[in-house]
Design brief:
Layout: H1 8-21, H2 24-38, H3 44-57, E1 65-66, E2 71-78, E3 81-89, E4 95-101, H4 104-109, E5 113-115, E6 121-124, E7 130-136, E8 158-164, H5 172-193
Antiparallel strand pairs: 1-2, 2-3, 3-4, 4-8, 5-6, 6-7, 7-8
Helix pairs in contact: 1-3, 2-3, 3-5
Length: 201
């Protein structure tokens, strides 16, 4: 189930090492973006962005990477390469969008979400709070933007969660955090299942 929101001070403290880990160009872009968010009449936008970026970055070992148009990508190692597992987009329309592997069936089973009519309509379980989620597949995302196109294809499916930056962020943001944590279990379990290398004589 979704958890209570962390305090603003906690978010800032946890975000600082994440920002430090990024490359200098990406760090400058993030700081510029947050300065614009923090200049708005309320702190909701900047607080929500930091919270979501922190939630995603803490689940992957690779530094977040700028993908253009106020969007960022998040990776995990994949052998000699890396695989994108999350994206965070700020489209400038008073929303933030999270892209993650499709864990809808698991989320319904875990009672994080409940169905609410149309295919993209869900509520946070135990509440009437709506949560907008869209399925992204190759047949409707063949020309997907750079920030999430590598999360599709090769039997991979993704979903997009849209959150408001002008309305109270709970419990929708807590549910989004629960969903990305649920997604991260897949690669955490895969890593744990790999056999340890044989000891050298």
């Amino acid at each position: 189930m979704p958890t209570k929101a962390p305090s603003t001070d906690s978010i800032i403290d946890r975000f600082a090492p994440i920002l430090e880990k990024t490359g200098s160009k990406d760090r400058t872009r993030i700081e510029k973006h947050l300065a614009a968010c923090d200049a708005e009449p309320t702190s909701a936008h900047g607080r929500m962005w930091r919270r979501l970026a922190t939630a995603l970055a803490e689940l992957v070992p690779v530094a977040m990477q700028f993908a253009g148009n106020n969007s960022w990508k998040f990776y995990i190692p994949d052998g000699k390469y890396r695989m994108q597992v999350f994206a965070l987009e700020d489209p400038g329309d008073s929303t933030l969008r999270i892209y993650l592997p499709d864990v809808l069936s698991e989320a319904l089973k875990a009672k994080i979400l409940a169905k609410a009519g149309k295919s993209h309509d869900f509520t946070v379980s135990g509440t009437q709070a709506p949560l907008r989620i869209d399925a992204l597949e190759l047949d409707n995302s063949s020309e997907a933007p750079e920030h999430y196109k590598h999360m599709l294809g090769w039997n991979r499916k993704a979903i997009r969660i849209t959150l408001s930056t002008t309305e109270p962020e709970e419990p929708q943001a807590a549910a989004a955090h629960a969903l990305v944590t649920l997604a991260a279990r897949k690669w955490a379990n895969a890593t744990a299942a790999k056999p340890a290398p044989a000891a050298t004589p």
